[in-house]
Amino acid sequence: MKLRSMLLAAAAVTLLAASPLSAKTLRYANQGDLKSLDPYTLNETTTNAHLGNVYEGLTKRGKDLAILPGLAERWETPEPTRWRIYLRKGVKFQSGDDFTADDVIFSADRVRATGSNFTTRVPKDAKFVKIDDHTIDVVLSSPNPILNSQWDTWYIMSKKWAEANGSAAPTPASATTPSFAALNANGTGPFKIESHQPGVKTVFKPNAGWWGKPEHNLTEVIFTPISSDATRVAALLSGEVDIIEPVPIQDIQRVNSGANVQVLTGPELRTIFLGMDQMRDELLESNVKGKNPFKDKRVREAFYKAIDIETIKTRVMRGLSTPSALMIAPELFSLSKDFTRPKFDVEASKKLLAEAGYPNGFEVGMDCPNDRYVNDGPICQAVVGMLARAGIKVNLNAQPKAQYFAKVLKSGGFKTSTYLLGWTPGTFDSHNVLYDIMGCRDDATSNRGETNLGGYCNKELDKLTDQVLVESDKAKRDQLIKQAFQIAYDDYAYVPLHQQALAWGVAKSVKVAQRADNSVLLQWITKD
Amino acid sequence: MLAFILRRLMQSVLVLLSVALIAFAMFRFVGDPVNQLVSLDTPAEQVRQIRESLGLDDPVIVQFLRYVANAAQMEFGISYQFRQPVTTLLAERAPATLELAFVSALFSLLVGIPMGVYTALRRDGVLARVFQAVSLVGVSLPTFLIGILLIYLFAVTLGWLPSFGRGETVKISGSWSTGLLTWSGLKALVLPAVTLGLFQMTLIMRLVRAEMLEVLRTDYIKFARARGLSTRAVHFGHALKNTLVPVITIAGLQLGSIIAFAIITETVFQWPGMGVLFLKAVQNVDIPIMAAYLVMISALFVVINLAVDLLYAMVDPRLRATLKGA
């Protein structure tokens, strides 16, 4: 009897605690975990978006991804190699400390220290000079017009807080002691973290002392990772959560037919593409011996033209993709519309193959992840069928991302002959694509072309890439980028497939701004 | 007896070491952990540094010996994903798994035994046939499918029970937080416990039924009936009691596998236990968690087997005699 009354009392308390009248609690479920709260540990969209509710960078990005002032009120470049940053005054960290130039200088050192996954956010040789408490000069060794393009996710930490808690250095993966900063957050942003159990549950509360004007009306946010697709959709349909990301493509229709829920879809910035090994003299996985067929441009063109992108869009992606002619999303490059995809044409492919000396086609291996991008495995299967019609027999090796990346990336020795990969330029700028994906891999000391898994190389393109980096006139810069992309396009360097769509499941009582980088940002969510 | 225990303990250490070695040999095929730790555009030089600092370039045997040396001091390292000690993470997750396992074991016993008895006594009854059919479903349908079906029926369609998570939890001591003391916690337990326990339940039901049929044919039951004892006393006082010995053995052994194989159920219901932690660790090549979990689970099985052996020795005089002789 005693136990029962205790249970009843406990139940009553929970019920009361769970339903204050005016509270707006948003329950949010994502496929991915929030593993570490240290903002320099893992550079990944979901993690960055989560931490972006708590931490802020010197810049922000708006709903359309335009760069806006953040903790920096404004900035100017008196000389091409000197940036003057004026910091926002009267900003406080959630611990109560004032935000000053010292915190920025501290964060600039910490983000470039060993163990940080964000070292590319700030150039290695950039010097941060304190002018006064709210002014900083950044001195560069060479001009860099896109210096602050990634500063929206370079989150500023409090020097005092980090040093007081033994977290002055980012926690490396090989650490032998637990990290304080991985379990606690102290930012300047619109939300603070009330409790955090890694991989289980994270509770956010609005930060009453935030310097900005809140656009949300939430009083609490409960985030739960739900990795199983079916369970995540069920949780939304049963009204246990208000917003989920992502909705699996095959469930979109069912979610939309629910009375109180809907799916918000939109193009994502990530470009999915196929690449070919053009570097080795003999392919690793092929029946062609003594030469590499992909060194012949006609073979690459045949490969490209054999892919029926519309069928992939309608059948595999159920309409939720935007076929792409470029290796960058149209949102990120204003002249994208000047390019159109070469037409799908199997007969032309066969003819090109015959001209190149492969009238009966050839055999080649293809690497593909099956748990990384939207329907990545099925896309590859479709591609295999399409290439077979042109006479290229593809031996598909689709495996989980952990094994896939171990095989194909630089650390694994680029062991691939053809592959499928997705890429969002971290800077949201074409230079990143030209440098990382299309740059020559021939100089071992440079990190140009590090994700150019097929080793495509054109020195003309590299020259343009270097000009793009230092050109600060926007119109001229866009023309240079266009020329560079034109070279890769004419070379059939890659086979861009599409930009996948993002799909969020949202209760009808919730209004949310869907940003194209797939960041769910709490500050733009309202709930009725 | 002491010699027997010591010998079994020595064997257990060998078992644990070989599990750890096999696990380590397999980790090389799970993928490269470093790629999960950094983003795709991380400079290769940095990737190399991380590999080196983690000691991943050392030969497997060196990594293994280093691991064993640390594990002997109960030091399982820091999780690559969470940057927290693996022991802390496992300790935080253990209550969820243990509570789930305990409740589903209880469910399988409390439902399985009566159903078994009933089907044995009313072999041709309609209800008995229904039970038999249900048990067939329990044995043949995979756990994840049962879980998803239950979610769609009870969470989405009827809206009675939550589809995921543990509900509200109450901290009782140290790192042990329980869901057994709140209404939402109890509600959240129902579906996963049924999903996890369904297979055990059907197993127990079939076992009880078969044993019961066997026992009912024996002479002492006939004598009991001849003595004029009530049917009730014959069935439950004599027959069931003698049925339960193998049932308890099986149920005890199954408890280990309920804990170890809760992985799928935990994933379907996003139950924040050790199983989900392990599965995520596999996907992200978080070797410290995988290694610690596998060693822990094999230790669990070793302990359960040891306990069962010792119990046998205590219960069965014949075995005790041979042990003394040895």
Q: Can you tell me the CATH superfamily of the domain at 86-272 in chain B?
A: MetI-like
Helix/strand/pairing category of chain A: alpha+beta
Stretches of chain B where pLDDT is under 50 for at least 5 consecutive residues are: none
Rg calculated over all Cα atoms of chain B: 24 Å
Query: Roughly how many Å apart are the termini of chain B?
Result: 9 Å
Radius of gyration of chain A over alpha carbons? 25 Å
Overall body shape of chain B:
globular
Low-pLDDT stretches of chain A are 12-21
Please tally the helical runs of chain B, counting DSSP H or I stretches of 4 or more residues.
14
CATH architecture call of the largest domain in chain A = Roll
Summary keywords:
heterodimer, A: 528 residues, alpha+beta, D-Maltodextrin-Binding Protein, domain 2, Dipeptide-binding Protein, domain 1, Dipeptide-binding Protein, domain 3, 3 domains, eleven-stranded mixed beta sheet, four-stranded antiparallel beta sheet, 27% helix, 22% strand, globular, B: 326 residues, mainly alpha, MetI-like fold, two-stranded antiparallel ribbon, 2% strand
Characterization of the model:
The complex is a heterodimer of chains A (528) and B (326). Chain A is an alpha+beta fold. Chain A has three domains: 2-38 and 176-266 and 503-527, Periplasmic binding protein-like II (D-Maltodextrin-Binding Protein, domain 2, 3-Layer(aba) Sandwich), CATH 3.40.190; 59-163, Alpha-Beta Complex (Dipeptide-binding Protein, domain 1), CATH 3.90.76; 268-501, Dipeptide-binding Protein, Domain 3 (Dipeptide-binding Protein, domain 3, Roll), CATH 3.10.105. Helix content of chain A is 27%, strand content 22%. In chain A, the strands form four sheets. In chain A, strands 1, 8, 9, 10, 11, 12, 13, 14, 15, 16 and 17 form an eleven-stranded mixed beta sheet that branches. In chain A, a hairpin with a 2-residue loop joins strand 6 and strand 7 (135-139). In chain A, helix 7 runs antiparallel to helix 9 and helix 13 (459-470) runs antiparallel to helix 14 (474-490). Chain B is mostly helical and 326 residues long. Chain B has a domain at 86-272: MetI-like fold (Orthogonal Bundle), CATH 1.10.3720. In chain B, 76% of the residues lie in helices and 2% in strands. Chain B contains 14 helices and two strands; from the N terminus they run αααααααββααααααα. Chain B has a two-stranded antiparallel ribbon with strand order 1-2. In chain B, strand 1 and strand 2 (176-178) form a beta hairpin. The longest helix of chain B is centred in the first third of the chain and has 36 residues, at 86-121. The N and C termini of chain B lie close together (9 Å). The model of chain B has no long low-confidence stretch (mean pLDDT 84). The interface between A and B is large, with 70 and 65 residues.
